[in-house]
Design a protein that fits this description.
About 55% of the residues lie in helices and about 20% in strands. With about 170 residues, it is α+β, with helices and mostly antiparallel strands. It has 2 domains: about 70 residues; about 100 residues, no CATH class. A 5-stranded antiparallel sheet has the order 1-2-3-4-5. Strand 2 and strand 3 form a beta hairpin. Helix 1 packs across helix 3. The protein is elongated and about 80 Å long.
C-alpha cells in the first residue's frame, strides 16, 4: 500500500467511526445510553450511519462527480434556440406592432441563421419582416448551447446581454 492509500484509510476510519462512536457514547437525540436502549444499539448505529455519516462522506468522496454533472448541462437544439428568442417579450411586442401598423400585410418571423461551430458555439437567430417581395432584418440574437441569449448591438457590432439591450430599447423610445 502506498502512503496515499494509508492516509485515505485513516481518514475514512475517522470520517466513519468518530461521529458514530461519539453519537453512541453521548446518546442519540439527547437521550443518554440507558440499559433499556442498549438493546437497540445496532439499529441506532445504522440510523446514525445513514443520517450523519453517509451525506458527509458522499460529499467528500464525490466532489468530482458533482462538477461533472454541472458541466454536462443539457444543451439546447436549433428549435429551442429559435423558440427562446421568438418568445422574448420585446420580440413579440415588435411583431405585434409591425403587424398592426401594416394591417397584417407584413409578417414578422424568426429563423436560425447560423449553427454552433467549434470557433463560435452559438446559434444565430434573426428576427425579420417577411414582406411579399423581400425580407428585412429587425434584430439579431445569439443563443449559447445552454440557452443564454444575447442581442447584437448594431452600432457597436457586438453582442450584449438582454438587460443591456432592453435598456437600449427603452432609451430609444
Amino acid at each position: 500500500m502506498t502512503s496515499t492509500h494509508v492516509i485515505k484509510d485513516i481518514c475514512m476510519k475517522r470520517i466513519i467511526w468518530y461521529p458514530l462512536m461519539s453519537a453512541l457514547l453521548i446518546g442519540v437525540h439527547g437521550q443518554g445510553m440507558s440499559p433499556a436502549s442498549a438493546g437497540n444499539t445496532q439499529s441506532t448505529a445504522k440510523q446514525i450511519h445513514k443520517e450523519l455519516v453517509q451525506p458527509q462522506l458522499l460529499a467528500r468522496l464525490h466532489k468530482t462527480n458533482t462538477v461533472n454533472v454541472s458541466q454536462t448541462a443539457k444543451e439546447i437544439d436549433e428549435k429551442t434556440a429559435r423558440s427562446l428568442v421568438w418568445n422574448l417579450p420585446q420580440v413579440q411586442r415588435k411583431a405585434r406592432t409591425i403587424q398592426r401598423l401594416s394591417r397584417g400585410a407584413i409578417k414578422v418571423d424568426a429563423i436560425v441563421d447560423g449553427l454552433p461551430t467549434p470557433d463560435d458555439p452559438h446559434y444565430k437567430v434573426r428576427i425579420y419582416e417577411d414582406q411579399p417581395d423581400h425580407n428585412t432584418t429587425i434584430y439579431w440574437f445569439r443563443v449559447s448551447k445552454t440557452g443564454v441569449i444575447e442581442a447584437l448591438d448594431v452600432i457597436e457590432n457586438q453582442y450584449i446581454s438582454l438587460e443591456a439591450w432592453t435598456e437600449q430599447l427603452r432609451r430609444r423610445r
